[in-house]
Amino acid sequence: MNKRRFLIAVIVSLLAAAALILIRWWPEPAEPGRAAVRPVGIMAAERAAAREAGGRLARMAPVPARAGVGKFSAETIQSAEDKFRRMIAFRGLITQEKERRSLAQQVLALPDGAELMRAILLDPALARSAFGEFQAEARFYAITVLDEVARQGKVDFVADVAADLGKQLTAVTGEIDRGRADDLRGVMAVMGRSLGSRGVEDVHSPMLARLGLTPGLPQPVRQLYLEGVFYGIWKAETFEVATAAVERMHKTL
Prior knowledge:
Layout: H1 2-25, H2 39-59, H3 74-89, H4 96-108, H5 113-122, H6 124-131, H7 135-151, H8 155-170, H9 178-199, H10 206-211, H11 219-236, H12 239-252
């Protein structure tokens, strides 16, 4: 009975975390009339979205001059921030996903683009030095770029970012910073979507070991891992499949 109550409590906490992730990740609802059944209507809606995004971008404060940090040039950092701001401009519009993928691809085409995304998430001091007050947005959209990395088949790269971030949070004494907890959930959501429910069936698989998702993981960090996996599978498959997958992982880990 106690074990059953514990599992119920875990599921409830997963649902609560998923709600928070949905607020952060889910697109804002499009305005009525934006989408149309006919291709001509869709094209018109896309043109309207481009105009709206352009207007939003024009109202944003200009990208401040950025200095180079470490091996990352000022040009790379400033270009990445410009792409992040454009992702913000398309938030909630009908073309959001298409535009964000295109912009993520442009970030990855920058010199050391993928490595910069990794550094943003693993080195908070670098993120602050590179992006100043924009560092929280930079971390959020770095995860969007990592999603594109995974879509291009480089799942190991994303897994290594998740593993290193998990190690950092495991080493924390006391309460984990909420922003960094969100970062780990977000990266693990990318992994959950990429692996799918079948990819997490064997909790002793080399990939889950590479992620650092092992029985010895401290409970607070394990919970962040599972919450991210839950949302990623839910986004790619169904709520029921995601729930069953995470329940199975929790029982076995």
